[in-house]
Design goal:
- The protein has about 375 residues and is α+β, with helices and mostly antiparallel strands.
- The chain has 2 domains: about 190 residues, Porin chaperone SurA, peptide-binding domain (Triger factor/SurA peptide-binding fold, Orthogonal Bundle), CATH 1.10.4030; about 100 residues, Chitinase A, domain 3 (Roll), CATH 3.10.50.40.
- It is built from 12 helices and 7 strands.
- The strands form 2 sheets. A 4-stranded antiparallel sheet has the order 4-3-6-5. Strands 2-1-7 form a 3-stranded antiparallel sheet.
- A hairpin with a 3-residue loop joins strand 5 and strand 6.
- The chain is globular.
């Protein structure tokens, strides 16, 4: 849980526009990765954010994927983000934007509340929660006072963005919303090959979302016994025997959630009774016949899949539905507002960048 990336702006619609702003003050003689309008971006700040980013990526990427070219590209993106943060904060100060200490304290409190549960979701004592919070601070190399300063910087950036959008972004017309709806419906009916065009990519994304929201679906619980290409014959046989043992307990009337918690190797889902959420028809084509033939409350036999041996239970079924303008109107209106905000914010930051004196010091960003 990287604290600088966990702070939530629940009170502003522009939260997604403003990246976390750490902006630590450099120490005398400290190495900088860039200087923005005579304000240094310390290498220690860059390294801290980089280490936090790579720690998260290591959970989802293999070492082979994290190539030198990948590293250079991501470092440039991070440096660019830190420079933009400096530019936005400088502009906020220039315009006299302020945030109250009350607002800062409220976000600090909400950040601390994230440490009130353990890894299994069970409440911690006040002392244990504070200890977990302090450990995270130490892990990231910041104090609680520095965290509060980071939060203040984020709120300043958000306040500036709110002020900017209030003056420049207008609500879309009914005609614009209807035009987008018709375009999405057409794309749902006639999917197109990827073109590299950002506007078309957004349209494709909306079409996929609408199709998913209206598709036939079932809510699925599962008990999973993992196997893969490296599993030996003996291990495969043992997994199958465990699956048959779990199935026998279900046949004898055992509660599916209890069996999932006891047996399933999908530990995250097991904590919620094996629930993996909704599966859309066609989303996992090899399992359509199994999942959509089961009645609500019914469970399958042991099914051999690419992930391993699985037992499925259906908790709910929803039929396919038509996408109607009245139901989609507010979502599309909000989407158009957010798109306008992103475009306006990008223009704003680009203007700040063009007017700024920026000296890149980092060697990876020189070429």
């Amino acid at each position: 849980m990287h604290l600088n990336h966990q702070i939530l702006f629940a009170f502003t619609l522009l939260a997604g526009l403003v990246a976390p702003a750490t902006c630590a003050a450099p120490k005398a003689g400290e190495e900088a990765v860039a200087v923005v309008n005579n304000e240094a971006v310390p290498k220690t700040e860059f390294d801290r954010d980089w280490n936090a980013f790579t720690a998260e990526q290591e959970k989802i990427m293999t070492p082979e994927q994290m190539t030198p070219d990948w590293e250079k590209d991501k470092k440039r993106l991070l440096l660019n983000q830190l420079i933009e943060q400096r530019l936005v904060l400088q502009e906020a100060r220039k315009k006299g934007v302020n945030v109250s200490q009350k607002d800062v304290d409220a976000v600090v409190l909400r950040t601390k509340e994230k440490f009130q549960l353990d890894a299994q979701g069970k409440p911690l004592s006040a002392e244990a929660a504070q200890e977990a919070f302090q450990k995270e601070l130490a892990k990231e190399g910041i104090t609680e006072k520095q965290l509060a300063k980071n939060i203040q910087n984020q709120l300043l950036a958000a306040a500036l963005a709110t002020q900017l959008m209030k003056d420049t972004v207008k609500a879309p017309t009914e005609e614009q919303v209807r035009k987008l709806f018709d375009a999405v419906k057409d794309r749902m009916a006639h999917p197109a090959a990827a073109s590299g065009d950002a506007q078309q990519a957004d349209l494709d994304g909306l079409a996929r979302d609408f199709k998913a929201a209206s598709a036939e679906r079932v809510r699925v619980q599962r008990v999973l016994f993992r196997i893969d290409e490296h599993t030996t014959v003996a291990q495969r046989k043992a997994a199958q025997q465990k699956a048959q043992e779990a199935k026998a307990k279900l046949d004898q009337g055992a509660d599916f959630a209890d069996v999932a918690e006891q047996y399933s190797e999908d530990k995250r889902a097991a904590q919620s009774g094996g629930d993996i959420g909704y599966v859309l028809r066609g989303e996992v084509k090899d399992l359509d016949d199994v999942l959509f033939s089961l009645p609500v409350g019914g469970f399958s036999g042991v099914v051999s899949t690419k992930q391993g041996y699985q037992i499925f239970r259906i908790g709910e079924k929803r039929a396919a539905s038509n996408v109607r303008y009245a139901a989609a109107r507010k979502f599309l209106m909000d989407y158009l507002v957010r798109s306008s905000e992103r475009a306006e914010y990008a223009r704003f930051v680009d203007g700040l960048r063009k007017a700024a004196a920026i000296d890149i010091k980092a060697s990876f960003a020189k070429s």
